[in-house]
Amino acid sequence: MGIVAITGGAGALGGAVARALAARGDKVALYDREHGRARATALAAEIGGFVHVSAFATAEDWAGALAETTVALGGIPTGAALIAGGWAGGTPIHEATDEKTWTSMMATNADTAYRALHALLPGMVAAKQGSIVVVGSRAVERPWTSTGAAAYAASKAAVVTLAQAVAAEVLEHGVRVNAVLPSTMDTPANRSAMPDADTTKWVSLPSAAGVIAFLLSDDARDVSGAVIPLYGRA
Length: 234
Hints:
This protein has a seven-stranded parallel sheet, with helices on both faces. It has helices spanning 12-23, 37-47, 59-73, 100-127, 150-170, 188-193, 205-215; strands at 3-7, 27-32, 50-53, 79-82, 130-135, 175-182, 227-230. It has one domain (3-230): Rossmann fold (3-Layer(aba) Sandwich), CATH 3.40.50.720. The protein is built from seven helices and seven strands; from the N terminus they run βαβαβαβαβαβααβ.
């Protein structure tokens, strides 16, 4: 049994991971922003988890989250699934009229992952144990599939590169960092956005959650720095 923090805990994948972890006995801390408060609170009630709502934009935000987690769950996280992120696109770089999409994607994906790693790793290194999984995208290995969303692809590539470099930094301290690369996830939001798509080719939430849960478990104790494709049949 461990304490696992999930950023983006109110989302579809965050919820699936939280349920999988709680089912095996882990204590779960759901971290999200104000817009996810209601969903995270309902999920926490369902699985017996803890919710912290914050902007998560500063070191102080993270310090507050970890302090409250320690009080609520009896310790700091020994595991984390960094799921918080987002997508924006639709315009090729040469047609963009401003830098809003680039700035937004780097802030939402790369900066969010960096701040989470910066906050969570010191406690794990001090404890000589821990495991973190970051969520990239199939676009990291197949960037040509993100035409019109180059900023998104670049931001996810930054997340995965960061994770691999950090994995080497903390390996001798007993801490593991891995990444997963989903293609299209079978979520309510994606079904709504792509009503005519063949969803049988998408990645199911239980499947993705199972892979993340495995990487966070002791069964994966010899796996670090890995980048795992979750492509379904897409």
